[in-house]
Amino acid sequence: MDARSPKETLISLENVAVRRGARALVSGIGFSIARGEIVTLIGPNGSGKSTTAKVVTGVIKPTSGEVTRRAGLKIGYVPQKLTIDWTLPLTVKRLMTLTGHFSASEIAAALEAVGARHLIDAAVQELSGGEFQRVLFARAMIRKPDLMVLDEPVQGVDFSGELALYELIRKIRDTTNCGILMISHDLHVVMAETDTVICLNGHVCCRGTPETVKSSPEYQQLLGDRGARALAFYQHHHDHEHHADGSVHVHEHSHEISHEGHSKGHSHKGLGHA
Amino acid sequence: MLDDFFTRALVAGVGLALVTGPLGCFVVWRRMAYFGDTMAHSALLGVALSFMLSLNVTLGVFAVAALVAGALIVLQRQATLSTDALLGILSHSTLAVGLVLVGFLTTVRIDLMGFLFGDILAVSVADIAVIYAGGAAILAVIAFAWRPLLASTVSPELAEAEGLRPEAARIVLMILMASVIAIAMKLVGVLLITSLLIIPAATARRLSATPEMMAGIAALLGAVAVIGGLYGSLTWDTASGPSIVVMALVVFALSLLVPVGYLFGRKAHHG
């Protein structure tokens, strides 16, 4: 895609370490994210994926190392877990303007883009996991961020919903040309559009395109042979339909997900939470 | 108009309710009920210290409540005891130390019952001026800082990532709580202040679709509780502060008749 070049670096981390007391949560982390680039962080439990994402968003200041942000970098954030207490009345419409002011037409357009426009008057507590996640995407997108940080964006969403969300992430990247940092909710399905996969285990264990990471010995050692064999990539094809309620119907014959990865998905789920 | 003690009580009480409604919403949303109670209990310590040091009582109460809030933040960072236990320690020890110090005051006789349960029928015109000036200032800060306050209530991480400052919002909220306690103490007393923060806000929840609506309705319901409670206390010759709280409770009980999601949201539209 032409709009993706020249690549402008949005943020770069150099030799970043975060310590809590004597314990190093992460160390020696270095990577950068450019406009239009999708970077996915994967790694086992407690490997520092969320810590790294929080360094990127600025929620955590690194103990040592350099974080360089492009001046005026605007971040849109989809947190890992957001539970909105029942005591707080919040409609989808009101949630959209939580951190900034936007017009009614901007709100409608952002919700339309994620297929959630019909939910505009719903209370957030009424939404299903997938619906809420779509709304959170819309909320992060409406700010027209330079960089979107998605912390386990498909967590708690069923398989077909997961594919729909990956499709949506791709669409967001293509239409807004923002950079995307994503933490993969489990290790088996990594978006094929990912430019760089970074495999973390307290430090950067290995990195590269999805294909190279999959076959790297470090990755296989970290996750065991079984995990490595199960890694699959979601490749985008027009093999499904979006419905007004946000659900997606996948045509079974045409998608190229490794069924091994899918069928083993649940038994490995614990690995994906950082 | 303000010559009559009952009118003064009504004006003062309604003024206070207009402030405790919106502020109380944050107390409910952020689960700070016990925290509010702790700050309120420390008010008695503030009263005792003010008399000992010949300070303005309102300022003394504000300072002590703010210090207790600060102490809690510092203790929470140590992460040894749970917040719940820390609040229990601070809440009761500040009340006890306050009561002990009051006992040492030999030169002034202070109306302990008045400070514990309030004496809204004794408010002066000067008190009303303090309530309205202080209340207006508190509401102005809430309105000005509304977006960061609300965003950091929903998710501190999200607020931080998107350039709002949740830690600053938290400190602002604590200062506002200390202020409202300082101006409310004379009216309803240290033991009942948090009821005016929590009950109207909790009542407003079922009647609201958005945070702003809940803040507004809580203010109105607080005013209803004050007016109803004061007329009740006049009619049945009951203690005025507790009567206001009882009235707030009655309104809350009535609100339970409204089913959850009946007024707003998807369920309201599709049955």
TrEMBL record, chain A:
Composition bias type Basic residues, residue spans: 264-274
The UniProt record lists the keyword Ion transport: yes
Region Disordered, annotated ranges: 242-274
SMART domains referenced in this protein's UniProt entry, alphabetically: AAA
Annotated Basic and acidic residues bias: 242-263
Entry similarity comment: Belongs to the ABC transporter superfamily.
Protein name: Zinc import ATP-binding protein ZnuC
Source organism per UniProt: Devosia nitrariae
Automatic annotation (TrEMBL), chain B:
Family according to the record: Belongs to the ABC-3 integral membrane protein family.
Subcellular location: Cell membrane
The protein, known as: High-affinity zinc uptake system membrane protein ZnuB
Function, in words: Involved in the high-affinity zinc uptake transport system.
Pfam family, one: ABC-3
Membrane topology, as annotated: Multi-pass membrane protein
Presence of keyword Transport: yes
Transmembrane segments: 6-29, 41-74, 86-108, 120-146, 171-201, 213-232, 244-265
Entry keywords, A to Z: Cell membrane, Ion transport, Membrane, Transmembrane, Transmembrane helix, Transport, Zinc, Zinc transport
UniProt cross-references to InterPro entries, sorted A to Z: ABC_BtuC-like (IPR037294), ABC_TroCD (IPR001626)
Main location: membrane
Species this protein is from: Devosia nitrariae
